[in-house]
Amino acid sequence: MGLGFTVGAIGILILSHAAYSTIQYRGLLKILEEEFSGPPLNVVAELLIGLVLCMYAGLCVPGKFLSIHPDSDENRIVSLPANVDFMVFNHRGKVFPSETNLKLKC
Amino acid sequence: MDVSAKKSSDELDVPTFSAENLQSNMKIIYYSRTFLSIVAGVIAGVLGFTSLTGFVFYFLIMAITSVGLAAKAKFTVHAYFDSWNRVTLDGFLSGLMSFVLFWTFAYDIVHIF
């Protein structure tokens, strides 16, 4: 969250600074009475840097993708119940046939 | 015979995946696309693009975004989404709306006023 957010804020600041320098450039052109043909090179470079920073932020800030496969590593249930010390398996129930087809309810 | 046929039809059934995780992935994609189309709109406005050039620029940025999202999914898209269209197409039109809004906004501020 922190790093990507900061990078995005810097990118937006750079973009607004590029917009501001374009406004200034147009004011200069108005004084010189020339036509606007395209933004100056430093504005283009600034926009590119801002785009790269915002691209990084836009891809990183929203969060990580989660796997949709039910049997992938991060979707497995690995936590054990807290009372595992009190479980006893050596009791008379083991002589009964156990149901092996039981499934966990999701 | 009957049992095996039933089993195979079960296996051929719709592949199961966690809908919650898929939805959260889709939300992440929408966030990324909306933010990047706004940024693309501001850039297109500052550069002074008009008419077709701006839309070509939008397509370019969205293509780069799709590649970035695929790279974020480590290019194993089927582990995170059920089809490629989720990565490449979803959120395209709604992004276009915000792109046009911010494009005209930035163009007006920089070039007209």
TrEMBL record, chain A:
<dbReference type="InterPro" id="IPR018937">
    <property type="entry name" value="MMgT"/>
</dbReference>
<dbReference type="GO" id="GO:0005769">
    <property type="term" value="C:early endosome"/>
</dbReference>
<comment type="similarity">
    <text>Belongs to the membrane magnesium transporter (TC 1.A.67) family.</text>
</comment>
<comment type="subunit">
    <text>Component of the ER membrane protein complex (EMC).</text>
</comment>
<dbReference type="GO" id="GO:0005886">
    <property type="term" value="C:plasma membrane"/>
</dbReference>
<keyword id="KW-0812">Transmembrane</keyword>
<dbReference type="GO" id="GO:0022890">
    <property type="term" value="F:inorganic cation transmembrane transporter activity"/>
</dbReference>
<feature type="transmembrane region" description="Helical">
    <location>
        <begin position="42"/>
        <end position="61"/>
    </location>
</feature>
<keyword id="KW-0472">Membrane</keyword>
<protein>
    <recommendedName>
        <fullName>Membrane magnesium transporter</fullName>
    </recommendedName>
</protein>
<keyword id="KW-0256">Endoplasmic reticulum</keyword>
<dbReference type="Pfam" id="PF10270">
    <property type="entry name" value="MMgT"/>
</dbReference>
<keyword id="KW-1133">Transmembrane helix</keyword>
<dbReference type="GO" id="GO:0072546">
    <property type="term" value="C:EMC complex"/>
</dbReference>
<dbReference type="GO" id="GO:0005794">
    <property type="term" value="C:Golgi apparatus"/>
</dbReference>
UniProtKB/TrEMBL annotation, chain B:
<dbReference type="GO" id="GO:0072546">
    <property type="term" value="C:EMC complex"/>
</dbReference>
<dbReference type="Pfam" id="PF07019">
    <property type="entry name" value="EMC6"/>
</dbReference>
<keyword id="KW-0812">Transmembrane</keyword>
<dbReference type="GO" id="GO:0034975">
    <property type="term" value="P:protein folding in endoplasmic reticulum"/>
</dbReference>
<dbReference type="InterPro" id="IPR008504">
    <property type="entry name" value="Emc6"/>
</dbReference>
<keyword id="KW-1133">Transmembrane helix</keyword>
<comment type="similarity">
    <text>Belongs to the EMC6 family.</text>
</comment>
<dbReference type="InterPro" id="IPR029008">
    <property type="entry name" value="EMC6-like"/>
</dbReference>
<keyword id="KW-0472">Membrane</keyword>
<keyword id="KW-0256">Endoplasmic reticulum</keyword>
<protein>
    <recommendedName>
        <fullName>ER membrane protein complex subunit 6</fullName>
    </recommendedName>
</protein>
<feature type="transmembrane region" description="Helical">
    <location>
        <begin position="28"/>
        <end position="49"/>
    </location>
</feature>
<feature type="transmembrane region" description="Helical">
    <location>
        <begin position="87"/>
        <end position="107"/>
    </location>
</feature>
<dbReference type="GO" id="GO:0000045">
    <property type="term" value="P:autophagosome assembly"/>
</dbReference>
